[in-house]
Amino acid sequence: MVQGVIPAMDLTEDGGDIWGSNPELSFLIRGIHRCGAAILNHHWAITAAHCPEGAGSVFRNEGGTIHRVISVISHEMYDSFTYNNDISILKVKNSFIYSQTVAPISVCVSNRELPDGASLTITGWGHTQYHGNYSNQLQATLLRKGPTNECNITYAGRITDKMICVYQISADIPQGTCQGDSGGPLTYAGILVGVVSFAKGCAYKNYPTVYTKVSAFHHWIETKLGEFGLGLINEIDNDCRCCKLSGGPTACLKGFGYISYLKITYLELSLDLRDT
C-alpha cells in the first residue's frame, strides 16, 4: 500500500478500535509476500482468483502456525484478461482456532449498492511505492467509493456490476493499493464488501482501484461452501453495517487487527498464521 497510509493500529473506523475480530491473511511465495485474503469460517478463506495462479515453492518464516490448503476454488468464469469474476476461496486442512484476535470476517450479502462517497477501508502489506518494498507492518487507509460510470470510462469499458471502484479521498495525497495488496479485504464499517482486483500502477492520480464486489458472489460462495456442508459465519443485513451471525443474534463486528500469513507452494498450499 502506497504513500499516505498509516499503520493499521493507528486507524479507527467510525471511532471503533480496529484491533479486534476481523483477521487478514497474507500470501507468501518463496517466502515473499504476494497477496491478501480473509477468513470466512473455520476452514475457508477468501481472496482474488488471480492470486493462486503460478504459485511457487516457499520457505517457512520463523514462528507462526502452518495451515495447509487442501482445496482452491476459483470462479469458473474468471477472466485473467478483464479480471471479471476475480474471486477464489481456499480450504485449509486444519481449522482456524477462533479467539479474541482470530475470527471470521463479516461478509456483505446485500444487493443494495453502497452510496458514492461512502468511506471504505483498505488494508495490506503491499509495496509502499511503485516497485518499492513490501511493508513489514499491516498498513491501512480510508478511501471513498466512486461512481461506476466514471470508472468505466477510465478503464475503457472493463467495469461490470460485479466490481466496486474506490478513489483516493484527496488527489494531492497518493493513497491506495499497490503490488502485493491483491486479494486483500475492502471493508465498510468493518464489513467485507470487496477484495482487491486490479488498478493502474500504485495509487495513480485519477485511476481508481477496482475491487471484486463480494455481494455479487454471495450465492456462488454459499454454493461452494455448501458442497462441504458449511456456510458463511457472519452475513450482514440490508444496510451493510450489521452482521447476522448464523444461529445467533445480530451483531456488528468492527476491526481487522489480526495479522496472519498465507503461504503457497508447488506441492501444497499452506496458511501460516502469525499473531504479530
UniProtKB/TrEMBL annotation:
One family name in Pfam for this protein: Trypsin
One term under GO cellular component: extracellular region
SMART domains in the record: Tryp_SPc (SM00020)
A GO MF label: serine-type endopeptidase activity
Gene3D superfamilies on file: Trypsin-like serine proteases
Keyword Metal-binding: no
Entry's transmembrane regions: none
PANTHER family on file: FI18310P1-RELATED, POLYSERASE-RELATED
Listed name of the protein: Peptidase S1 domain-containing protein
